């Protein structure tokens, strides 16, 4: 009932009378009063005024299943929400849950990852209470080769979510880093369980530095957080909800063609590498050139002095010639 009470209080800017809440949920005034007190104990500031009722004054920046459910506007993403304060990794958890049969659209969220993962065995830092670490579990009917394009779909949803929530215009460093002022604010890791021609499930993990203000030395020059770029505190649940809404819409568009044809233009408008000199860290043969945007399959077009090359995301990283971007 706490979820429903929160949602009811949010429906209006003014007060909701205790009587209305009793009638709506078919419970006693005492039951409502108890639920409101529990919400207060979890950090919600709720004002109670005689003869007027209850009003929500402020929402704490806590991640919880109740909070996420009470603000949820999506159709299917987050139909099931798994929240735990600490997880090894939301991607690992989502993979396990997928094997256990949890439905398409499940959202896995934590406050702290003990062993968050980046690509190719790298680490991802998620300090307690300061970041977003979440994973979408999907069971799409697509061919496995097309799955990596979903990383790009997710990166766009993150950029749009950040913009909607803060007005900040983030960019994307191909393929999966969301950056602000040339520093990384978000990383995305897509993993899959598949047969040769059939996807069992895909998990898309998104890590965002929200309030983090200290980073390990090895990447402190390359990393930033939303709060420090925005200059104000951002509510993590609200941002999660925004990103989910954008992802859901984009994902449905993606499924129509199973490629990024509909997104190329918009993605390229976010691409911080566009028309920049880049170094392609191909393990076999690194090379340099000018990045010219992505193809409908998500590959990066790079013009070298002699030819145009297509770079696919599985194999390589791209760096600016003089730094991370
Ligand atoms: C990524 O890898 O950027 C993908 C990160 C995905 C993290 C999410 S969190 C939820 C889900 N569960 C998981 O276990 N993972 C996903 P990559 O492009 O390989 O970048 C990794 C590199 O980024 C590291 O080697 C560090 O240099 C740097 N890094 C690590 N933590 C960072 C942070 N919090 N902010 C900025 N950079 C970071």
Structure description:
With 325 residues, the protein is α+β, with helices and mostly antiparallel strands. It is 30% helix and 26% strand. It is built from nine helices and 14 strands. The chain has helices spanning 2-10, 18-25, 29-41, 65-70, 90-99, 149-166, 226-230, 236-257, 264-270; strands at residues 45-49, 53-58, 81-87, 107-113, 131-138, 171-173, 177-180, 183-194, 199-209, 277-280, 287-294, 300-303, 308-311, 318-320. The strands form three sheets. The chain has a seven-stranded mixed sheet, with helices on both faces. The chain has a five-stranded antiparallel sheet with strand order 13-12-11-10-14. A two-stranded antiparallel sheet has the order 1-2. The N and C termini lie far apart (48 Å). Residues 89-91, 113, 116-119, 122-125, 133, 135, 177, 184, 187-189, 205-207, 209, 219, 223 line the site of biotinyl-5-AMP (BT5).
């Amino acid at each position: 009932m706490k979820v429903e009470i929160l949602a009811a209080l949010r429906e209006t800017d003014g007060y909701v009378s205790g009587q209305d809440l009793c009638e709506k949920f078919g419970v006693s005034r005492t039951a409502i009063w108890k639920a409101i007190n529990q919400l207060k104990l979890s950090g919600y500031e709720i004002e109670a005024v005689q003869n007027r009722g209850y009003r929500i004054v402020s929402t704490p920046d806590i991640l919880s299943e109740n909070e996420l459910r009470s603000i949820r506007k999506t159709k299917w993403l987050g139909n099931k929400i798994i929240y735990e304060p600490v997880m090894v990794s939301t991607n690992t958890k989502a993979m396990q849950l997928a094997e256990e049969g949890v439905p398409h659209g499940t959202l896995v969220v934590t406050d702290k990852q003990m062993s968050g993962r980046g690509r190719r065995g790298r680490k991802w830092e998620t300090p307690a209470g300061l970041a977003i670490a979440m994973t979408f579990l999907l069971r799409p009917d697509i061919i496995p080769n097309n799955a990596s394009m979903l990383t790009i779909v997710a990166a766009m949803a993150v950029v749009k979510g950040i913009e909607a929530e803060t007005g900040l215009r983030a960019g994307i460093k191909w393929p999966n880093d969301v950056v602000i002022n040339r520093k990384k604010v978000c990383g995305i890791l897509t993993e899959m369980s598949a047969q040769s021609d059939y996807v069992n499930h895909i998990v898309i993990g998104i890590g965002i530095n929200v309030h983090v203000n200290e980073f390990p030395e090895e990447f402190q020059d390359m990393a930033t957080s939303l709060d420090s770029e925005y200059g104000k505190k951002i509510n993590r649940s609200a941002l999660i909800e925004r990103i989910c809404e954008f992802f859901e819409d984009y994902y449905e568009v993606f499924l129509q063609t199973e490629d990024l044809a509909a997104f190329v233009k918009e993605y390229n408008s976010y691409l911080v590498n566009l028309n920049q000199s880049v170094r392609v860290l191909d393990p076999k043969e690194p090379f340099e050139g000018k990045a010219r945007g992505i193809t409908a399959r998500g590959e990066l077009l790079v013009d070298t002095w002699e030819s145009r090359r297509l770079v696919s995301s599985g194999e390589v990283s791209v760096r600016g010639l003089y730094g991370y971007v």
